[in-house]
Each structure stands twice: as structure tokens, then as C-alpha cells.
Amino acid sequence: MASNKNIVLIGFMGTGKSSTGRMLASRLGRPFVDMDEYIEKHQGMKIKDIFALHGEEYFRRCESEAVAELCERKNIVIATGGGTMKNESNAALLRKSSFVVALTADIDSILLRTSKRGERPVLDAAGNSCGDRREAIAALLESRKGIYDGADFTVDTSDLSPLQVTDGICRFLKGMGI
Ligand code: S3P
User: Fold this and answer.
1) Which residues pair with 57 in a beta bridge?
2) Angle between helices 121-130 and 47-54 (to 10 degrees)
3) 82 CA → ligand 1 middle, Å
4) DSSP secondary structure letter of residue 150
5) Which atom of ligand 1 is nearest the CA belonging to 11?
6) Mean pLDDT across the stretch 66-73?
7) pLDDT tens for each residue of 166-178
8) Can you tell me the distance from the alpha carbon of 173 to that of 31, in angstroms, rounded to the nearest whole number?
């Protein structure tokens, strides 16, 4: 029997979690939830405004609430935010309730995909303090080393389109009987 476990995409900013998640969900005929959008809807404002108005700590609390609520559901595809797995309780809940797919990418791909300022407050803040966005990404990747490890399946998306990544994940899920 096919599993109704959720499928959760984890990974650093710019690895393609949202675009791949949306495509994967439609391919599998499952509802898709982008956690950042979920939080924005509940808070009635954009992520960047939550950071600006309430600060990162408040955002992280919203993020943990979202994880707890979404892990109660079944049969959905979830795209997490890049920092969701920093919190051990979030990580434990997601690993318990879902098949975890980690997306990775090299620094150049991440830099290119996240080059628009204003959309990633964590990166803007880090870039402002060290002056260089590439360095900011490298430092953040280093500080988050290990948090995306141990997934059920991992895809390096650097040279792949979301469609190709989705195909790879679908092949893996098929092999798992999903
Ligand atoms: C964050 C990543 C963002 C968003 C928030 C914080 C992070 O999500 O949750 O800006 O700490 O890495 P994406 O990975 O979807 O950009």
C-alpha cells in the first residue's frame, strides 16, 4: 500500500525547495505547502516584514509552530525554509513524520538564485555585516554544516532544473513504493 507519509524538502536557501516541491506535489497529486507562504498567510505579512518588525527569534517561533501543525497532516508535500532544520525539535518532528528529501547546491548556484536583495533577510543581514554576499553564503553554509545530513534522499541541484530534480525524486519514491 502506498505510504501517506508527508514528503518534506529541506536544504539551504536557493537549492530549489519551493519550485521542486510545487512540481513534485502536482506530479504526485498531493497538496503542497510552502512553509514560508504558510507563515506569511498566518501572520498576514511577508517574511521580510516579520523579520523587520518582530525579529528573527519571533520568526523562528512561527516556523516551529508551522512545523508542529504541518506534521499533524498526512499525504502532503512540504517545502521548508532554509533555517527550519537548525532547530532540533523541528528536525526530529519532520524526520519522524515524513520522507525527507535534501536539496543541495554549490555556492555559485546559490548566489545566482538568491541574488535578489530583500527576499532573504538572513542573507541580507549576513551580507551587510561582512560586505560580500558570496562570503555571507559561505559562512552561513559553514555554520549550518550537518543540519541537512541524514535525509532519506539527497539531490545536488546545481546543474539541474526543477523538472529534472522532480524526476529524480519521483524515481526514488517509486523505488520506495510511493
Ligand atoms: C531562511 C530561509 C528562507 C526563509 C527565511 C529564513 C533561512 O526560506 O525561511 O528567510 O534562515 O535560511 P528559503 O530557504 O525558502 O529561502
Assistant:
1) none
2) 60
3) 4
4) S
5) 14
6) 98
7) 999 999 999 888 8
8) 16
